């Protein structure tokens, strides 16, 4: 079948396409590398005509034009399923409304619980000969959004890698209402940041717990990426990849011969991921690569699926951990930093996996205003969000050690966690533990 005529009929300018948006509408802007660019500029040009257009997105990587033209938030309201560093910056200037959700639940939530969206707009790769537009490196909940929208507008970007499924990695032209040919901006790049000494020490402690053939999930943030790079330099063999976010570290692991996926129980031989953000090297690696399989997040992150892989090792980051073992990975007190994302999904999945282990890693402290501030804290700051309840978190790791706290009593947790704190900050934590009634006389610090 030839789709060229249908393509021509649906092809419009960005200004023409965004005429379908009305005041009060809920619309979706695409996620991550797939957020719209030309359509965003065109919508921003309609600022004076529109009021209260509510925009959904997830993990903003480019500053949207609609935010710049509407500082009073009269025309456009920004909603995110997960905040990126860019969203945090926007949130310091104006409201960004976050919806707390376990990321694995998002496609079903979109399909079954939100009101139909007026418009879904998203970037896609150029149409293939079968009439499909590939979503690029953001499978996520994209297909669910398209199904739930009355009108679908695609903005074609020939820079988007074609990410093979899995499933739900593309949309057919018959399901698209308007096509806009974009100006092909390069993808947002996450620099492959150098690892600190603290990252390296934590990474060594985690790698000691890993064995050949285990399956690796790396979470978002500096430390998990550092662990990934050190895995590439280890002598581990036949590792597998089943992850939400594909990052450069997996390319390092693959190229170093560490990662073959041969022993995975599901999707053997495939690097399974939900979305990818990284350097151009990563985008080139996943492009049309049958080694990689992109899946919606209700496949990658659902604990009962991820856990089908034996020896699932999940490595995520946190902001603070309290002496009871509650993990906060998404706020500093009431100040939102990110979101639950897939962290809880993968903590649950690792424990369900035969031989699996979840690691939440963080530097023991940060230095602010010339003072060391512990990230192991007596209690979380007022308003801090518990990402992983104490009943599910498994290993906590800092540069000073690791502690498997699952099932431990509160006094064992206090001891184990204080041993992960910076040595200069341990005494005050012991005093707090005593005051909280979770320190026994026999407790000791190594
Ligand atoms: C993606 C997957 O594959 S699945 C699951 C992974 N998802 C998750 O874990 C979701 C929640 N986790 C996260 O979002 C991240 O891992 C984080 C936020 C915990 C850490 O990410 P990093 O990029 O390493 O964080 P970083 O150290 O740069 O801190 C982020 C911000 O919080 C601030 N911050 C972090 N800890 C503290 C603290 N204890 N006190 C004050 N501020 C803090 C930093 O200053 C920084 O602020 P800025 O962006 O305004 O400069
Ligand atoms: C998009 C969600 C990212 C995360 O899980 O942290």
TrEMBL record:
UniProt-listed GO biological process terms: acetate metabolic process; acetyl-CoA metabolic process; butyrate metabolic process
Presence of the UniProt keyword Cell membrane in the record: no
Known role: Coenzyme A-transferase that converts butyrate to butyryl-CoA.
UniProt-annotated location(s): Cytoplasm
Origin: domain of life: Bacteria
Keywords associated with the record: Cytoplasm, Fatty acid metabolism, Lipid metabolism, Transferase
EC supergroup of this enzyme: transferase
GO cellular component: cytoplasm
Pfam families in the cross-refs: AcetylCoA_hyd_C, AcetylCoA_hydro
Domain Acetyl-CoA hydrolase/transferase C-terminal: 278-433
Domain Acetyl-CoA hydrolase/transferase N-terminal residue range list: 5-188
Binding, CoA: 219-223, 319, 342
GO molecular function, one term: acetate CoA-transferase activity
Pathway: Lipid metabolism; butanoate metabolism
Catalytic residues, chain numbering: 244
EC number: 2.8.3.-
Catalytic activity: butanoate + acetyl-CoA = butanoyl-CoA + acetate
Record family assignment: Belongs to the acetyl-CoA hydrolase/transferase family.
Classification via InterPro entries: AcetylCoA_hyd_C (IPR026888), AcetylCoA_hyd_C_sf (IPR038460), ActCoA_hydro (IPR046433), ActCoA_hydro_N (IPR003702), Butryl-CoA_acetate_CoA_Tfrase (IPR023990), NagB/RpiA_transferase-like (IPR037171)
Protein name: Probable butyrate:acetyl-CoA coenzyme A-transferase
Originating organism: Syntrophomonas wolfei subsp. wolfei (strain DSM 2245B / Goettingen)
């Amino acid at each position: 079948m030839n789709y060229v005529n249908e393509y021509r009929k649906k092809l419009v300018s960005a200004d023409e396409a965004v005429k379908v948006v009305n005041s009060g509408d809920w619309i979706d802007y695409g996620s991550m590398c797939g957020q719209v660019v030309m359509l965003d500029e065109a919508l921003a040009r309609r600022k004076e005509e529109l009021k209260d257009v509510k925009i959904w997105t997830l993990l903003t990587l480019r500053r949207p034009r609609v935010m710049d033209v509407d500082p009073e938030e009269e025309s456009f309201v920004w909603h995110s399923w997960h905040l990126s560093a860019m969203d945090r910056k926007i949130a310091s200037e104006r409201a960004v409304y976050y919806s707390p959700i376990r990321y694995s639940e998002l496609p079903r939530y979109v399909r079954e619980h939100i009101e139909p969206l007026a418009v879904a707009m998203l970037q896609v790769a150029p149409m293939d000969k079968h009439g499909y537009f590939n979503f690029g490196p953001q499978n996520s909940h994209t297909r669910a959004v398209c199904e739930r929208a009355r009108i679908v507008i695609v903005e074609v970007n020939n820079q988007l890698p074609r990410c093979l499924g899995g499933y739900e990695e593309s949309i057919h032209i018959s399901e698209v209402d308007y096509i806009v040919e974009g100006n092909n901006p390069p993808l947002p790049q996450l620099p492959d940041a150098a690892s600190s000494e603290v990252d390296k020490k934590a990474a060594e402690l985690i790698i000691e717990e890993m064995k050949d053939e285990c399956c690796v999930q790396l979470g978002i943030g500096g430390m998990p990426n550092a662990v990934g790079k050190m895995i590439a330099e280890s002598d581990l063999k036949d590792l597998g990849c089943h992850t939400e976010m594909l990052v450069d570290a997996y390319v390092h692991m693959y190229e170093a011969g560490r990662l073959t996926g041969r022993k995975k129980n599901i999707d053997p031989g495939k690097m399974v991921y939900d979305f990818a953000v990284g350097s151009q090297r990563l985008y080139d690696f996943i492009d049309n690569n049958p080694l990689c399989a992109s899946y919606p997040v209700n496949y990658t992150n659902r604990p009962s699926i991820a856990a089908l892989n034996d020896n699932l090792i999940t490595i995520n980051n946190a902001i603070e951990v309290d002496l009871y073992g509650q993990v906060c990975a998404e706020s500093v007190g009431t100040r939102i930093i990110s979101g639950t994302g897939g962290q809880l999904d993968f903590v649950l999945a690792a424990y369900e996996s035969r031989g699996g282990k979840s690691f939440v890693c963080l530097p023991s402290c940060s230095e602010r205003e010339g003072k060391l501030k512990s990230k192991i804290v007596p209690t979380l700051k007022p308003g801090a969000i518990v990402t992983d309840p104490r009943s599910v978190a498994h290993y906590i790791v800092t540069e000073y050690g690791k502690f498997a706290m699952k099932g431990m009593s509160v006094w064992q947790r206090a001891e184990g966690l204080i041993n992960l704190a910076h040595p200069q900050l341990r005494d005050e934590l012991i005093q707090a533990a005593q005051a909280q009634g979770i320190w026994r006389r026999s407790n000791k610090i190594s």
